[in-house]
Fold each of these.
Amino acid sequence: MQGQAQQQAYDRGITIFSPDGRLYQVEYAREAVKRGTASIGVRTSEGVVLAADKRSRSPLMEPTSVEKIHKADDHIGIASAGHVADARQLIDFARRQAQVNRLRYGEPIGIETLTKTITDHIQQYTQVGGARPFGVALLIGGIENGTPRLYETDPSGTPYEWKAVSIGADRGDLQDYLEENYREDLTLDEGIGLALRAIASTNDDELDAGGVDVGTVSGETEAFVELTNDEISEYIAENDLEPSEDEDEGGDETAE
Amino acid sequence: MQGQAQQQAYDRGITIFSPDGRLYQVEYAREAVKRGTASIGVRTSEGVVLAADKRSRSPLMEPTSVEKIHKADDHIGIASAGHVADARQLIDFARRQAQVNRLRYGEPIGIETLTKTITDHIQQYTQVGGARPFGVALLIGGIENGTPRLYETDPSGTPYEWKAVSIGADRGDLQDYLEENYREDLTLDEGIGLALRAIASTNDDELDAGGVDVGTVSGETEAFVELTNDEISEYIAENDLEPSEDEDEGGDETAE
Amino acid sequence: MQGQAQQQAYDRGITIFSPDGRLYQVEYAREAVKRGTASIGVRTSEGVVLAADKRSRSPLMEPTSVEKIHKADDHIGIASAGHVADARQLIDFARRQAQVNRLRYGEPIGIETLTKTITDHIQQYTQVGGARPFGVALLIGGIENGTPRLYETDPSGTPYEWKAVSIGADRGDLQDYLEENYREDLTLDEGIGLALRAIASTNDDELDAGGVDVGTVSGETEAFVELTNDEISEYIAENDLEPSEDEDEGGDETAE
Amino acid sequence: MQGQAQQQAYDRGITIFSPDGRLYQVEYAREAVKRGTASIGVRTSEGVVLAADKRSRSPLMEPTSVEKIHKADDHIGIASAGHVADARQLIDFARRQAQVNRLRYGEPIGIETLTKTITDHIQQYTQVGGARPFGVALLIGGIENGTPRLYETDPSGTPYEWKAVSIGADRGDLQDYLEENYREDLTLDEGIGLALRAIASTNDDELDAGGVDVGTVSGETEAFVELTNDEISEYIAENDLEPSEDEDEGGDETAE
Amino acid sequence: MQGQAQQQAYDRGITIFSPDGRLYQVEYAREAVKRGTASIGVRTSEGVVLAADKRSRSPLMEPTSVEKIHKADDHIGIASAGHVADARQLIDFARRQAQVNRLRYGEPIGIETLTKTITDHIQQYTQVGGARPFGVALLIGGIENGTPRLYETDPSGTPYEWKAVSIGADRGDLQDYLEENYREDLTLDEGIGLALRAIASTNDDELDAGGVDVGTVSGETEAFVELTNDEISEYIAENDLEPSEDEDEGGDETAE
Amino acid sequence: MQGQAQQQAYDRGITIFSPDGRLYQVEYAREAVKRGTASIGVRTSEGVVLAADKRSRSPLMEPTSVEKIHKADDHIGIASAGHVADARQLIDFARRQAQVNRLRYGEPIGIETLTKTITDHIQQYTQVGGARPFGVALLIGGIENGTPRLYETDPSGTPYEWKAVSIGADRGDLQDYLEENYREDLTLDEGIGLALRAIASTNDDELDAGGVDVGTVSGETEAFVELTNDEISEYIAENDLEPSEDEDEGGDETAE
Amino acid sequence: MQGQAQQQAYDRGITIFSPDGRLYQVEYAREAVKRGTASIGVRTSEGVVLAADKRSRSPLMEPTSVEKIHKADDHIGIASAGHVADARQLIDFARRQAQVNRLRYGEPIGIETLTKTITDHIQQYTQVGGARPFGVALLIGGIENGTPRLYETDPSGTPYEWKAVSIGADRGDLQDYLEENYREDLTLDEGIGLALRAIASTNDDELDAGGVDVGTVSGETEAFVELTNDEISEYIAENDLEPSEDEDEGGDETAE
């Protein structure tokens, strides 16, 4: 109870340290990320795979309206988890940065460069007053000089580079699953399969093509591509993940 | 009681996260939406239907003065639920965006584009300090490249695309009603009937032409049209929804 | 008591939602309106009537100094109830808008247009921090394209159109009185009589010419006119409302 | 005690409404006015009289240094009661407005126009945050088109027109005295006598020429004139108000 | 104790009224003035005398470093009491105003004009948020059109004109002393003697030349002059105020 | 418990002193530094060594993504400990300052000059409101006029020059280790060995090449160089620090 | 305990007065000064001596990195005590002011002029909101027109001129020591000896050349000079202050 009272004191001040050197608002923003359904990134030898769990909440909602995989530039895809409206702000920011880079230097923006421009932007919202942190994490995947790269941004504004990673709900279980099943020499196809099986692993090993989005950037084409429902269905079938019945609602209303 | 005390701590700080990653002011703004009478959107094979429950509070009030269906552009209508004055701000914002699009690109704004411009605007009021969130939800319906589209915006700034949806009071019951009765191959006429029956379903299956507004954007004309009282009366009669007596006041004074 | 404590929490934050989706500061501003003496608007077949109860507080105060009926433009009158100094701000705002309209478009401003410009202005004070809401309601009456129009604005910034309406003290009783006695085919003279009898109804059916202001905009002249004391006395006599003795002080010092 | 706690909540927020629609800071500013010694205005058939009780606190203080009657323009005098430093701000504001009017329109400013410009200025300090209300009331007297006019401004920014009025300490008693003894056909001389007797009435019917300031604007000269000590002594003698001994200190140190 | 709690509520809000119409921050700033050692002003028939008690705290401190008498312009001296650093701000402000007057109008600034420019500046710090009031009082003495004038400013921004006055510590006793011993026909020499004896009266009738500053503006020369230590010693001897032993430290560290 | 309550009072106000003259937010920011894994700087006779403990948290995370050693300019390296996102801000600031110096003066920036520009920047965040202090410490090492220099910055904005120093976790033990083992005549190779053995000393004297970053600026080349994993492995082997098994996770998620 | 609660109320509001007229934040900033090790200034007949106790905390820290004596201009030195990072801000401010004076007037800035420019700058941080006061005191020594001058600035922004003075830890004892041993006819050499013996007096009469900084401005050269370690050692030897063993750590980490 005392701990609770103490914590409350730090809730109200957005950008201040607690006596043990923590930023509570940033940690609470991480909770907003956890409230969203999971997104997964897998770096394979042939390219990067982004997959997002977006189990539709209502049969009347357009499944495409729950956007968790976004094209940031020709060669870059971004998957998000957490507060949807915040994600849109960062995606827009990323797209503008990518465009500016093409205009200014006549070449596609580097994956690491884009990631760090975004995390610097996020950091400002954790240090300067008058706004709250972003309640969203991103996976930024693309090809840079022919090499697949996969980055994560978190609400503190820290960039991380990964071979395979999940953000959002069930991160602990999903990360364990990825560690057990990841191999650096995966093909892009195998990467898609790994991502889908990981998502299904938190759902009785079942998956519905409408309940998941998949995007890839292959090293060959250097182009971000979103898979069609039919393509996803094929992968689901190949991986024996067909659901036996409809999904329930999942996650928070504004956090995907 | 403790929970209550804790919650209060987050009421005062507009744009901060709670320890479990929620934004209370946004959730309270959703309550303001629920205090308004319902609005319903139905996407049919022939166009989009918007209908709004506006049961007049006083026989001396002009029924037309309670505006819940608005024309945003020639090809786009918007229905609102919640804080009326806030709704007007967003409608004005939408109209300006639509005009700017025509001036800048010489063509009508896309329904999705308009929706996301509005939700980005709404999001700003949930992250940057010095203002409260918008206490209103919108249904944005129109024709884009010949195809009917129907979107919802909520106080968090999240955009959703729907086949049929309700905002405002009784969303749970109305959404159930729509799920049971919606078919994708509805004609525009059938869509109007479905919307009116849904609204009536929360009111002993009775409806008064003066107590409901209906607007449509048909795929043929690509034009937003508001139905006259006579036209609405005809639909009410066709659907056996005539009231046996006058309506009481309903809803909050500033929330429709 | 708990409820009270909870309410206090929302008093201090001007522009935030309560857990049930209400804006307390706006509701308290409505109380400021109720503290003012009543104003009444009646839309007749021949024009609009505005009447205001302004029972003078002291025999030494100039009755004309308590202004509750104002000319906004040649064809528009405005009656107010609530915080007097706030009313003056909105009346000035209305006059500037009307002038700008004449300068810009060479024609008188529409009644609905003016009303909504005012309510949008009022809304800003309920959403953006750094100021309190306006503690005043207005009745805006005038002729638009030959048709009498009567609007109300409230502290939330919501516009309403009415056939007959009262703002300020005793709204419940006065509205009942109007509902019982209003007819759409009233002449302007009958409208004046109805307004005066309504005001008198809350005062033992007595009225003093110095204690009431009356303004009209007739459809014929399209001109706002304030009645002289003699004219008002005639109407009082015609309606058998002469007082038997002097009025006491009434209402709040700064709320009319 | 509960009432007190509740009140405290509203003290801290300058520009917010209490649940019963009151603005406590404005009401407290009125208390600051009451802490000042009284000023009195009397409109006579021949002009306006302003008189101010300024009982000097120390024999070493220059009586003229306690300024309560000010010249705003050739034809306008202003008497104040309350916070002295605040009064000076408003007097300076009034003088600038009067000068601007002469420069812009080549004619003296109207008394009502000046009053309302001042009250609009005062109102801003009650609605917009970042400052406290003015803790002072003014009496503005002058000749407009040959007619004497007398206005009061209060801390809420409400303008009132009066035949005779007092501001500051003992308003209740003084207003009663004025109501009993005022006649519209008073000469300017009789008006001065009435004002002095009123002030003396709260002080055992005694008055010292050094303890009171008197200014007049006669309809004939249309010029604001301050009476000399000798002239005031004559009026005191004529009205049998000579003191039998020296006055004590009175009022608040910064409120006159 | 309740009174204390209530008072605390007003401490935090700099520029707000208490329920009884007081501005606590201004009253606390007056306490800062009282913490400073006294300054005294005496207006004689031949000019103005300013004297300041500055009993040095340490034998190693340069007595001249404790500045309490300042030259504002050729014909104006200013004595201060209270927060030293605040005094410097106002003295600088006064000097700039005096210079601007000479540049703009080619003549020395009037004593009353300068005083009121300073008090208007002080008032702003009591009404507008974001800063605290000035914790200092000033005595402004000089010759205007051949006549000696002596003004006081206090933390509320109120100007007072005096024949003789003290600010800072022991004001009650000193003012009594001055009232008993002041005569309007004092010579400048007698005025200096009165000021020194007054200061000595609060210190066992003893005074040290290093512990007091004296400045004069004589009507003949119209020039501000600071007395040398030798001159002060002579006056001390003439008035039998030689100390028998050294002074102790006195007053607050930053308040003189 | 009382102490705790008192401390809380200072947590909320970012830039204020406690009664004993401390700035709690700065002290809490130092705790954020301690939450990060250690970085070590060693100044040798031949150049400067920077080493950072970055024990990877997950086998799937790219070890290079945890950046703790940064190149600020050709001749300057910076090691950080604490909040990663904050470190990035300061590193960017340092790089811009170095570039500006080359552009403006045509020569490399001095190590002391760069350090003090950074600490002045950090100090601003501890004095001016509206932001929190930086939760990071830096070690800035380089060659200036042929001489190796090693500086530390802390969250208060104080610069320190060191012969050998550690920041982050285990500073007490590491500093003791360095004091016991440092010699001014170390070669660059010996300096690298000392740094690695120091880091290993807090970890059972074991180290993994992937779990540590090493950078040097030799006096000969005046160039900042990061060691490859192979080079680090060699040093680890030479110093008998090979780990017997994998490292666990260490430190805070956003603090390195 | 009550006193403590009351004090807390004033901690949070940076720039407000307490009921007894004190500025707590300024007093707490003085505590920050006391947390720093002492600096001493001695004005001799031949020039000014500045000496600073800087007992190094760690054998690995460069003694020169703890800067407590700074050159502000050719003829001015400044010693500081308190918050190191704050001191740097004021030193930079002083250097800019000195440079501006040379550019603008072509001559070196006066010692008093520079001191008062600095104290006016410090005062602003105690009156205007949005920042905390400076937690540092300065001794400013130099030659002005051939005469040695020695000034002190404190966190309130008050300037003092001294013959000999100490700031920082042990001010009470050190000031007593100086009062007992100071003579106005000291030579510069004797002044250095006095300063060193004073510092040693708080440390068992022992001193280490690396633990103290000494700077002088002689009247002959009018140039600020810092003594080398060897020179200091000689003075220590001459004054019999050689330490028998190493010093422990002393003072606060960021306060010197």
Note: The first helix of chain A runs from residue 2 to 12.
Amino acid sequence: MASACASRLTPGMASLRSPFLSRSLFSRPISLLPFRGPTRCSSQLSASISTSSFTWDDVLRAACPRYSGDGDGEGDGDDSSDLAGFFEKIRLCNRGSEMQSDFLPFVVEDQIVGYVHHGFADHLRQFDDVFTFDQEGLNGSRFGGRVGLHHLLGTREDRTEAVARVVKCLGRELIPGIRNEHFPVKSSFGGSIIFSLERAAAPYFGIKAYGVHMNGYVEKDGQEYLWIGKRSEVKPTYPGMLDHLVAGGLPHDMACGENLIKECEEEAGIPRIISCGAIPVGAVSYMDIKGYSYKRDVLFCYDLKFPESFTPNNQDGEVESFKLIPVAQVANVIRRTEFFKPNCALVITDFLFRHGYIKPEYVGYLDLLESLRSGDCS
Amino acid sequence: MASACASRLTPGMASLRSPFLSRSLFSRPISLLPFRGPTRCSSQLSASISTSSFTWDDVLRAACPRYSGDGDGEGDGDDSSDLAGFFEKIRLCNRGSEMQSDFLPFVVEDQIVGYVHHGFADHLRQFDDVFTFDQEGLNGSRFGGRVGLHHLLGTREDRTEAVARVVKCLGRELIPGIRNEHFPVKSSFGGSIIFSLERAAAPYFGIKAYGVHMNGYVEKDGQEYLWIGKRSEVKPTYPGMLDHLVAGGLPHDMACGENLIKECEEEAGIPRIISCGAIPVGAVSYMDIKGYSYKRDVLFCYDLKFPESFTPNNQDGEVESFKLIPVAQVANVIRRTEFFKPNCALVITDFLFRHGYIKPEYVGYLDLLESLRSGDCS
């Protein structure tokens, strides 16, 4: 709750003043204009995300209410009612909207299930027993045409197998990060599954992907604290960055609630008797275009209130460590740095809205609220 | 929270089986298709809202988990995961979108601040020292043109005074319900105030109106209960219908939080020491066209958790009585009846999402979530 803006850190945390602070990851000043839609990020910004290297000391310094951007140890008028830092983080999730016309709709059973870059489509043309290419324009794509599946692939299983074969042939150079996890392909969350697709290939076919993200929090003496994870330095994606307590993609054969319980066990050692108390609280969405990749993600958000006595314990080696940080200070880290994996910043911003840390009196309140569902949230 | 789906009513509540149940107010079966946008309501539906007459007994019968739609006292398979009744209530707030082209944009200082029906515009034409009518089309209105203010009305005060004079001349027949309360006219919540306008006239000029709505709840033995009000039978709008604990329009000279505290005192006798604990949790919006009226409302939502010992006490005579009802049973009343003032149903549905009573596993989850902000929420 809003009144939980604690000015102290959890006892036992390290000093807030690290002389080794990686300044390059702190946010640059940006325009105060409210967010009006996705914009393309500079390559410098992207580079800073993929080469992240910071410590918990850096995080705690940025979290500090008396934070000084210029390093002189004095507060510099940095204002928690200034939403600019939040808008910037939303933009990190929503890049490249101006490139949408470079993509062809991927249409199966008369439903648009995805979008394929015309350059990636050129790689698919050799598989003419799997993919079809109509010249007829659809939805104003500047290249006209659409991608489809061969009419002989009439069943879900046939399609799954044929596309999997193509993904394998294209190889890891074109589609990196193959995980052998299957995502359902459908036009909307409630729609029927048209086929299943390797998770790593989903953005190359512009498939909607769904996930579950959970904010784990604790209430102590009327103040709220969030459990924050720091990703392993050896994770292939976003190594070393800050993360939620629990998050995961939604496989094709599992309901949201069940998947969350599974991820709770794997990622933070949370037993079912606790995780079954997680509360679904809404969803956020974004669309992110970069090169051939068109991510269209919808994340179902959950809150789980923990007893003070609980300590998370990563089971799968993907998290380096966890810390419990006052919510208002987590908000500072989001505003001031790029330490968080971008979509986690989005889900935590949703938490900040629902728990009263972002107020209608702050300039840009409604624009920021709307921007949390910038992608097709269906 | 979701696990708070109590099956019992607050002790002391009246019998659930009223032989005088007003069945006409119970929802008719509707299509299970997810909400895809505003549709026009039947006049029968509107009539049932304006002629509401039901008792708390009727409410409690509809709230009952073992509710039987056919009155035989047996459960009829009515399913809390069926969101159709919620979609229907969202539609009640979002009527007449197909009539948008009957309205001319109302443009002041190069910003669209509202929309005026061409029929209402004809009444304004006689005031040619106040209103201007450009023929140039804007935004595809089928009548072309736009309404503006005379260039000699250069200040906020001049505009406020001139338009107030017109509203007075047009009279209560054209603009009923004059309250002598002023609303700010601006293009978005954060924009500058262009002038101020009588609250009752706002929908005739299609001005965006902002309000604050608060859900007051209590947690007892791990279960959540909502305080529900029943409006006075002599209120000019929605007499006798169910309402939140506290709600009010946002005047031009007050911040959201301050306005809420004022309304808490007036509507439910909640002292500032309690009401200052209300948490802002987001916003909902809708657009509703009927005749010359074009409502574009944005409601800032608040939650306030009360101690068990607190009992609300209406101060201004606008509420007949309050009852404390388990949240899951309030959800039943919204799904099954039209007892709630429509925009209150919207705000409570938002509460149901945030507190886990509506789950991702329910068909239509994302569509219903999106529909809570069907209007321009800026």
Note: The longest strand of chain B covers residues 293-306.
